[in-house]
Amino acid sequence: MDLWDILTEVELQEGNSDKHIWRLSSSGVYTAKSAYDALFEGAISFAPYERIWKSWAPPKCRFFMWLAAHNRCWTADRLARRGLTHPDRCLLCDQEEENIQHLLIGCVFARQFWFELLQIVGLAALAPQPEVPSFDDWWDKAASTVNGDTRKGLNSLIILGAWTIWKLRNDCVFNGAAPSIPVALARAREEAHLWSLAGAKGLPFDTANVVVS
Q: What is the reported pTM?
């Protein structure tokens, strides 16, 4: 009956062909994008997704960042919840219990690493401070202070830095390696060089063109 009520106001004109109009796009023409947008209309967006998936980095590194953002990395806290063997303290600083936020930004080793890594490219002022509540909050704030290719490079560098910390942590867990800032920096610089050759823009930064707002 509702359909009947709608159609009673429609007047058919002889000689005019039927026309399909897609109401979900301004042009009236169907597009996959408009259908996709309509599907997720009203959904809660996940803030870090653009920085993760639209930044230049190897897929495995971006996937790691996605897991880190969802707290799905196998750090000590997650291992403990499942009754699995885990280190009692962070192996990089030996001061606090390990979780992904501590490992990437709360650990004194990690903060020193970030400071020296960003200092190489003239952005030491963006290094995380002890009061920063989360890795994502720091990343969002740091990325908002630069623009253009510098922002692209910074996003790639932050993914690279987090990946370096994670690999070093695993080296300590599985191979008994000792945490070392010079070793971590050397690995990060070597990796950054390879990423640049593979097409990462802004690595290393041209510090003469850095624009900080």
A: 0.77
